[in-house]
């Protein structure tokens, strides 16, 4: 099996304040974290600077979104250049809440991916099917189409982590089984092999997201094609440390 460094992202979403996030930060700063695991915390944009200046430098920080250009009259948006200026190296793009609550299209997500990478940010690119799509048997079709648009906008896959997050598993407590996660991850890797390259298929981290907890992370992490996690709710709790250390 190719050596892929285990990657665990926390997605704090629109939660917390300086006091509670400061508590999570100090838990992480003092915890014993597996030194081969890459850890990145997705902070609300107003707390990016705070997160970056408080977290130990061995832990990365991600913005949860950004716009597709460097600057201009786009009230309320932030650019990759601003994210970099805060010392932050990652951005989460295409999260299902951006797609389905805020109506972001595949096209816009693709443009954001391209611009974030050109601006030297690492990108956690999210894809995943809705419950009705899974039930209709279109999971593969949906995730391949989403991955295609991302792939068209990536030149350097070294800075991309692909997050498979079935929408029905996000925030629902209904985690994909290890077999369900492995099945989709394996197919995504095969799609990348066929449509991008062998090298990228072997090296790209494909992480799973959707109700990952301290209790279910080890079995999920034991699957060959699960290279880490994107964690929402549990990233706000001390059990995030157990999830970071899920890889044996
Ligand atoms: P969850 O969220 O772990 O709370 O299901 C995952 C995500 O949205 O990235």
TrEMBL record:
InterPro entries: Aldolase_TIM, TIM_sf, TrioseP_Isoase_bac/euk, Triosephosphate_isomerase, Triosephosphate_isomerase_AS. Pathway: Carbohydrate degradation; glycolysis; D-glyceraldehyde 3-phosphate from glycerone phosphate: step 1/1; Carbohydrate biosynthesis; gluconeogenesis. It comes from the Eukaryota. It is an enzyme of class 5 (isomerase). One of its GO terms (molecular function) is triose-phosphate isomerase activity. PROSITE patterns: TIM_1, TIM_2. Its EC number is 5.3.1.1. The keyword Phosphoprotein does not apply. GO terms for cellular component: cytosol. GO terms for biological process: gluconeogenesis; glyceraldehyde-3-phosphate biosynthetic process; glycerol catabolic process; glycolytic process. Keywords: Gluconeogenesis, Glycolysis, Isomerase, Lyase. It catalyses: dihydroxyacetone phosphate = methylglyoxal + phosphate; D-glyceraldehyde 3-phosphate = dihydroxyacetone phosphate. Triosephosphate isomerase is an extremely efficient metabolic enzyme that catalyzes the interconversion between dihydroxyacetone phosphate (DHAP) and D-glyceraldehyde-3-phosphate (G3P) in glycolysis and gluconeogenesis. Homodimer. NCBIfam families: tim. HAMAP family: TIM_B (MF_00147_B). Belongs to the triosephosphate isomerase family. This is Triosephosphate isomerase. It comes from Amphiprion percula.
